[in-house]
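So, can you check?
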Amino acid sequence: MKNFDWSSFSRKIALKGTVQLIYNAWTKSSELEKWFLKTALFYTNDDHLIGPKDSIAKGMHYKWTWYLYEGIGEGKITETNGKDLIQFTFAGECLVDVSLVQQAEYVIVKITQKNIPTDDESKKSIRLGCDSGWSFYLLNLKSFYESGVDLRNKNPDLKGMVNN
């Protein structure tokens, strides 16, 4: 484990669709709630809540909740280009880059989470925990947009599953 990178990781998945469809999946509350979040709220710099079908923009901030998890995730949108790149803070001051590339009928979605602190708790909860979480949610993104099936467990009696 001497050469293991605790400060960042990347995950990729190929899914059928268009870059615009998948960009919207990451940049509109109404779409994020279909495959990733229970609630996705985005606010402008002056704290006005944007509509669920409105696209996010650089400088906005968010409040997110997940099914079966306590607490609220908060962060900032640090970059959007309107077509194939999104960046936001996550799990504190980590940065998550989402890039989209069309390759024939597939969109290659690449997530990189970086600036992960390297203390023992962050190694466990952020580096390993987020890696596992993003891996599942990328699969759910593919499942939802290719077949309409949401794989998330939403049953509070079944906590601790791979799909929550």
